[in-house]
Amino acid sequence: MEFIVSIAPNSVLRAAPRSRRERANFTSCLINASTVMVAAGGEVDACNAHELAEYVECSLEAATRLVVDLRDLQFFGTQGFSTLHKINVTCSGSAVNWVVIPGREVDRLLRICDPGGGLPVATTLETAVAAVVQGPRSHLRMIPRS
After folding, report:
1. What is the mean pLDDT for each group of 10 consecutive residues in the chain (146 residues)?
2. Model's pTM, two decimal places?
């Protein structure tokens, strides 16, 4: 199965304002009328992880599907995992189907902090879009004790 992903013609690319001290940048765009993609680059750590969560929440607006692309991050600290959990809870409460595309740094942290696969993960943009289009999933689920 092949997916072609294109940005909606009337979509607006929004970027978070960036100062000299910030180490992360966030952008968002509409993939289609109900799907928004938020991408992050740079470094997410304890100082700015909350900004990623706030940016995602503000980007949702009327979207029912969300793709969070973290492939361009050069650093993803442990506070970033708490941010992904917060995004998961926010999406669950808002009935938003979402998925994260981790890069190398995020994948490393997920292997340590989320070995049971509690967060929705996709490896490519195409599989991420396919995953959110499939319909709602149970955002919060029990992970069995090992």
Report:
1. 41 48 85 93 94 94 93 95 95 93 96 92 94 70 67
2. 0.80
Q: What's the pLDDT score for residue 23?
A: 86
Q: Which CATH class is domain 24-133?
A: alpha beta
Domain chopping of the chain, boundaries: 24-133
Q: What burial class does residue 5 get, using C-beta atoms within 10 Å of its C-beta: 0-12 exposed, 13-18 middle, 19+ buried?
A: middle
